[in-house]
Amino acid sequence: MSTTAETSRAKSGFSLGAGAYQKLLAFASLVLLLIGFSLASPNFMQTANIIAILQATAVNGVLAVGVTLVIITGGIDLSVGTLMTFCAVITGVVLTYWGLPLPLGIVAAIGTGALCGLTSGFFVAKMKIPPFIATLGMMLMLKGLSLVISGTKPIYFNDTPGFTEISRGSLIGAVLPSLPLPNGVLILFLTAFAASYILERTVLGRYTFALGSNEESVRLSGVNVDAWKMGIYALSGGICGIAGLLIASRLNSAQPALGQGYELEAIAAVVIGGTSLSGGRGTILGTLIGALIMAVLTNGLRILSVAQEWQTVVTGAIIIMAVYADMMRRRKMG
Amino acid sequence: MSTTAETSRAKSGFSLGAGAYQKLLAFASLVLLLIGFSLASPNFMQTANIIAILQATAVNGVLAVGVTLVIITGGIDLSVGTLMTFCAVITGVVLTYWGLPLPLGIVAAIGTGALCGLTSGFFVAKMKIPPFIATLGMMLMLKGLSLVISGTKPIYFNDTPGFTEISRGSLIGAVLPSLPLPNGVLILFLTAFAASYILERTVLGRYTFALGSNEESVRLSGVNVDAWKMGIYALSGGICGIAGLLIASRLNSAQPALGQGYELEAIAAVVIGGTSLSGGRGTILGTLIGALIMAVLTNGLRILSVAQEWQTVVTGAIIIMAVYADMMRRRKMG
Amino acid sequence: MADLIEMRGIEKIFPGVHALKNVDFELRSGEVHALMGENGAGKSTLMKILSGVYAKDGGTIRVGGNEVTIDGPRAAQALGISIIHQELSLMNDLSVAQNIFIGREPRLRFGRLDEAALNRRADEIFAAMNLHLDPRTKVERLTIAKQQMVEIAKALSFRSRVLIMDEPTAALNDAEIEELFVIIRRLKSEGVGIIYISHKMDELKRIADRVTVMRDGETVGTVPAASTPIGQIISMMVGRSLSDEAAVIPDLSAAPVAFEVKGLRRGREIRDVSFSVKKGEILGFAGLMGAGRTEVARAIFGADPIEAGEIFINGNRCHIRAPADAVAAGIGYLSEDRKHFGLAVGMDVRANIVMASLDRFTNRAGQLDEKGMRGEAAKYISLLGIRTPSDRQEVRLLSGGNQQKVVVAKWLLRDCEILIFDEPTRGIDVGAKAEIHKLLQSLAAQGRAVIVISSELPEVLRLSHRIAVMCEGRLTGILPGGGKTTQEEIMHLATLRESAMEPVGEPA
Amino acid sequence: AQDKMYIPLISKGFQHQFWQAVKTGADKAAAELGVEVTFEGPDNESMVDRQIDMLAAALAKHPSAIGFAALDSQAAIPLLKQAQEQKIPVIAFDSGVDSDIPLATAATDNVAAAALAADKMAELIGGKGQVAVVVHDQTSRTGIDRRDGFVNRIKEKYPDIEIVTVQYGGGDQLQSTELTKSILQGNPDLAGIFGANEGSAVGVINGVREMGKKDVVVIGYDSGAAQKQAIRDGLMAGAITQNPVGIGYETVKAAVAAAKGEKVEKNIDTGFFWYDKTNIDDPKIAAVLYD
Ligand SMILES: Nc1ncnc2c1ncn2[C@@H]1O[C@H](COP(=O)(O)OP(=O)(O)OP(=O)(O)O)[C@@H](O)[C@H]1O
Ligand SMILES: Nc1ncnc2c1ncn2[C@@H]1O[C@H](COP(=O)(O)OP(=O)(O)OP(=O)(O)O)[C@@H](O)[C@H]1O
Ligand SMILES: [Mg+2]
Ligand SMILES: [Mg+2]
Description:
CATH architecture of chain A: Orthogonal Bundle
Bound molecules: adenosine-5'-triphosphate, magnesium ion
Oligomer: heterotetramer
Distance between the termini of chain A: 14 Å
Structural class of chain A: mainly alpha
Strand content of chain A: under 5%
Radius of gyration of chain A: 20 Å
Strand order of the largest sheet of chain D: 2-1-3-4-5-11
CATH topology of chain A: ABC transporter involved in vitamin B12 uptake, BtuC
Order of helices and strands of chain A: HHHHHHHEHHHHHEHHH
Radius of gyration of chain D: 20 Å
Number of helices of chain A: 15
């Protein structure tokens, strides 16, 4: 009796730290990769490189966290990549063109993201357009608008001192010099923690799962399904806004042409992390691990100086194997 | 009773010509686009341009037909674009490097496609890897292998006379000079017709719908679900092989780096055409229309000399509107 | 004569549930062997083992005297065993005929389908069942009851030696049940062995030869159906005896009208339906399959659009456009189709029970009160006797009847002023059914207006203070409840076609 | 607008700064010469067939002349023949088209330009050590030419320099950043990195900065605000710049001349330049740099 209860509680998996046993196992593919690369190259397992891997995870990880929410509702969001860029461009406009102070830029990025997410949500919930199409249309519109607004050129943040600190600085490093974790990574973890909390502990999260599980039954329970769904898309959009800040800060510029293709990588991280594309189940922790697996893989193969064409082949094969291993593990656990 | 029967027959919609009324309405968004562009520019509705549009549809259309099958089973195939390229490269190896005769090149392309499709199918059906991941892995592997096999450079078909005729020649034009429809377009229609026939009239097609509808129930009925599923993926792969031939012939070369991104466009055509990503329903005719809508849109905006960044914006908006109009129409029709 | 099926010492363990403990069961050819037991006793699990859906963890199965291994549905079919599953599992996007013959389609050469033959054969089966259904209709367009008939047709099409029916009549009306029994008798005479699972006790006497009772995953015993009193079977099932009291109709003459519907219409499904319910009253809805009762309920609840009609709550006009409006106005609706409309089966019991009442467990910051929800869930699990290892068990892993109890719990917890229950006791065992009836009565006694739609006439008769009868989308009459109305009177109104249209009873 | 000459330019890209600079040049010429110009290009340089579709749509508009930067010369030949039949002059830009249909070609010699980068690299690292190359594309003409121009020159002239790896970042700044960091991590003794286009070069700068490797010599290609800043700050030793504005300008100018039936020069070499801290503000250099 107690076993089942435990399993299902572990499955729901809130709190990034707890529920040790199963959580550790979920890391298996990741840990295996880490061990493999460490053995293959002495340059891999070094503080600087681990931090580089984490930093490489930050943007994709934040996007993946955002899209996890939408996927759990049974939807999909193809616009995350270009939305990130759009938010970065808007921040550029606010900070560089208008010269407003940094906090307003941050609010603009997250607000723009939330607003665009809300719009996608409106298309999906109210206009009943399939999420794939609604967000594909959004993706294209935002892609074009980023170019239009920026005048097809990067917007630099040279006039906003401290902007690069958002991603590159290290608050933790200032306190603990031995752990120079860049703020970008810290923001990823905070975002993931917050999203996880919302998902597991709040009504919004509960409805996220419920919508993905059986939307019609939720509607017939008297829930204003459309409003909640729009809320979830808006939240996801806001998270993309955070990703926009991170990438703009990292590149010290808003690159209007960037972003397409990032959606696939984000969705891949989500699915590798065990979230089902048909909705109703998924965890933020899984998504984080999925994003890390991808970053470790890319970094490790580069460190080994594998020829690029083979990197791609090996990445494809390892992704399949990692997910297969994960499926096996879960099946064994019942 | 007879009403119901009729409706359901119309819905299943085999045969590209028949079932006039509902079919014509399904064209509504497309027809509207055509009328709009014709009014806006005298250069649009001209034989040469219409043929250019059709030819631009050919490759994406064939890919979309292939992926329709997989989507109806409730799966997804991200590898179609790179598989197309891979098949083109293999054809290049067979024809140019090995100097074998043209028919063998054709067999190689379709055979390679089917084999790769079968492999994806194996991952999905036997190894129970989610289709998204299985075909993402496949996409990456094929992308890398295309580069490896081709030595990261295009393979030209200058030594195979007649190869470019596959896509550029016009059998119909030879008979009816007033209708110089390129063979590539003819092949698209033939492929669509064959796929439609298989889908509506054969056992394989029946299981395609059944799997997407309720896989568990098919399994409980004692059907060897895995084998059929692998068959569908193989068929879809073979169709990608045809697309590979078309693009290689059109470009007179196998371009090893091409292909990524095409999967999104193909899937978009399928979904615009009314096929549900959750499986169980869809038509090839719809997919063709979806592919045409996208091609007409791109071409028309170019003919109007809309600035490129605005083209993207408008495309996104029109895709959303077209699908919305289609949803409204269907809801009204009950 | 050797037993057709002999199951010995069958064991099945699910994570956290020992579902079958050393179960024995046998079936002779030409008999109807009823399998009875409370919700979650293990009946479906045993049958799923016999039909190759689950692998057994122990024990032996003999078919025709030979020990066999049944490792999949196909193996069971090869042995001549077919099953009608308790949970409908049809392919919604396919037609009726396509569903029936999935995996066995008549083919032409080169893998082409012979659609004409397919539809013809389906027609033949329907004719034998006396069922009027176009084989080309898509399954998603059918009501639950019709879908159930399709499942039955599919099982019949196998022409098996052994036919397992897991609650085939849960969704059926008396008329269809009668048709089904005709078919069962015919099959019986052809020597087919039938395993019959049902919670409707009256069916035992009418159709069963022997009865095996299970409790908590164990066999309690096998008794002859004809000579064993129902009361004894019930006490074998639930371990005690139940008393069966008729409804006591309170005097509601002074009670105010809580809920009124005027001139509700939509196409052919709902044709000018008007009625009212008083505070403290239970209004039963009777009618044949397809009479439109579900449609009326869904329309009131805002789940489907209406063309015309007004709804009054406590005399005030209410505009209900979506279920959210209805719930806000104090209306609750328990759907007849728990799998599609009642439950999020992938979520746990606790989440499902609180689904309609989440605002009650949410603080200002949107944070959920997990402890409070656990408490409420525990309360209803024990109140309704929901058999589950914990309130965190996923609902899809519960037995059918226990799933139904979860939906009931959801609406009891929501605590609405006006409650519409559509087939609330579908698939629920006798003991729990009595509990639910008591609960409904106490809800009414607290002054709530309760509407109960049921296809079981005895249930309608036992519960209702008044009985509304529908036929073809029209309300054909309202009859008094209690002992004053007979089944024949209801059936008369339920078959009152448009030609003979003249409402009886009190004016609607 | 009916009597105005219309000249579409089909380029290899659109969103990148280099192509935007070409567009600027084209627009400038269009304004001066009183013609209408449109500028289009696919999202990335592998989309050969998309470019063909763009060319087809451009031809459907009956232009006076066409400017074309072929991603793959051979693939475009049928359409170029069609243009020839319709008497629409074609001017090639950025890189040549293997055909005699284009009346003129306005391009940079990428191989020679990258070779110059190799010479500068050798000079700056003292003729020996390990270097890496970050390229934007493995299969496009510009990617191949710049890679080969650099790599071959090193192999031919500088036997003591080892090229440890060539990696491709798609011209995406973030991806090139991550890539550079891995290269530095995997090759701690690296002396220099060459970034073969703007996105790659900026990525290399970011990567080097984030890894805190001050002694790695970075050489870039093209310009843009970030590269110019990096050169001023000393993070980048210098870079090769082409003259994209000139390419666009000359292409339109040649197209107008050809459309009028005037004779045009067959090869218009727009040249390339080395720039570093010392000459970045030189007016001649500043004129070919863009932000
Ligand atoms: N797949 C499963 N995983 C875990 N537990 C299960 C599973 N299937 C059934 N059970 C449990 O096994 C027990 C027996 O279930 P079963 O469905 O056989 O009951 P039943 O007698 O058919 O009940 P009902 O009358 O409600 O249909 C129940 O406690 C149920 O929760
Ligand atoms: N999806 C549908 N499409 C078309 N007609 C439908 C659909 N669902 C129901 N109907 C029709 O609506 C009418 C009423 O349906 P329904 O069977 O739900 O009524 P009911 O009185 O609740 O019956 P039941 O006893 O089965 O609950 C019937 O004529 C039925 O055929
Ligand atoms: Mg059961
Ligand atoms: Mg009903």
